[in-house]
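Notes for week 9. Today we move from apo structures to complexes. The key idea is that a small molecule is not decoration. When we ask for a structure prediction with zinc ion present, the ligand SMILES becomes part of the input, just like the chain. The input block below holds both the sequence and the ligand string. Read it once before you look at the output, and try to guess where the molecule might sit.
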Amino acid sequence: MSTNLNIIGDCSEDIFYCTICKYPLITSKDFVSGAEFKSCNDCFLTFIESDISGWKNGKRPEKKKVNDYLLTKKKLNERKVKL
Ligand SMILES: [Zn+2]
């Protein structure tokens, strides 16, 4: 079985994974955040919204904060699966 994929339109600027947490973009809010900030909505609310001008000027969260956040996000997702 072969599968052909045809891409219609220019999607070279689109992203499908958050550049901070590496999770896939799923919701429409994720894609809105992704288009402007290359992040999912969760990361936008956690790291970017409080300092949008800083983010646009290149300010990024500390690696330890991102790692702590990813650990929490992973635990929350595990709980969702167990329900
Ligand atoms: Zn993210």
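The radius of gyration is 15 Å.
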